[in-house]
Amino acid sequence: MLLGILVGPAGLTARGVLLDMVDALPFVDVDSGLSTRQQAILWNIRMPRVALGAVVGAMLAIAGAAYQGVFRNPLADPYLLGVSSGAGLGATLAIVVGGAAGFAGVPIAAFAGGLLAVAATYVLGRSVGTGRTEVVIILAGVAVAAFANAIQTFFMQLHDDTLRQVYSWMLGRLSTDGWSDVVTILPYVIVSVAVIALHRRTLDVMSVGDVEASSLGIDPARVRLVLVGVATLGTAAVVSASGLIGFVGIVIPHAVRLVVGPGHRLLLPLSLMVGAAFIVLADILARTAMSPAELPIGVVTAAIGAPFFLFVLRRSRGVA
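^ thats the sequence. predicted structure below, dont judge the formating
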C-alpha cells in the first residue's frame, strides 16, 4: 500500500508520506516537509485509490475462499452465481438509459443487478430440490449469467454509442474521486468479512460433505445460504465501485492454500491480506505499464491470474 501511494508522476517520498500520516494523528504535530499540493495529492487522490483497491481485493479474495468452501469447488469464485453478469447488466442499463448523466447511477444499478442475479440463481437452484444442491445452484448460476449477458449484449447493440463507457466499467477501474466510494462500500465489506470469519470453523466441517456436517449438528443449507448471501453482498458492493475485476477470487485463495493448507482459520485472514496487496500491485502496473495512459485493472489481473490459474490446475492434476 505504501508503494501504491508513492508511485505516480507527483514525487512523494516515503519519509514525507509516513510523517504526514503521523501528523494526522490526534495530539501529534510533525512537519512532514510536504507542500500543500503534495498533501492534497496524498490525501485526496493517492490514498483513496489505494484504500479502494485494498478493500476491493480483500473482499473478492475472502469471498472466493468462502464460495470454494461452501460449494467444495476449487473453481468457485465471487462471480460464479451471476454477480458479474447481473452487475454488468445493471451498469449497462444505467448507462444506455441515462446516457452520459446515467453514469452517476452505475454503482447503484450494478449493486442491485448483482444481488438480483444471485437471488434468481438461488431460487432457481433451490426449486429443483433434489440431488447435490451445491452443484444445482452452480448450474443455475451459469444459466442466469448467460441470460443476463444476452440481455446486456442486446442493449449494447441498440445503443452502440455508449460502448466505450460500458467497456470502461466492465474492464475494471479504481476511482480517484476521493473517499466517497470507500466510505460507501466499507460497511457492506465489514459485515461480509465479519460473518465469513465467524464461520471459519463451520467451513472446515462443510468441506467433508453435507451428510457428515449434518451428523455434527450443522445445517448445510442454512450455512450455505448465509455465506453465499453475505459474500454476494460484499462482492456486489465492491463491484459497484470498481467494475468487474476477474481472477482475484480464484487465484488468491489457491495461492494462500498452497502455502498454509486448507484450514480456514489461516486461509481466510491471509486471503484477505494477500487479495488487498494483489489489487494494489495490479493497479500500480495498470498506472505505469503504458504511462501516461492507464490500462484497465481487469486486464492486468487477467494477465497475471490466468497463467497462475493454469499452473494451479496443472499442479493439482500432478498431485492427484
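The first helix runs from residue 2 to 6.
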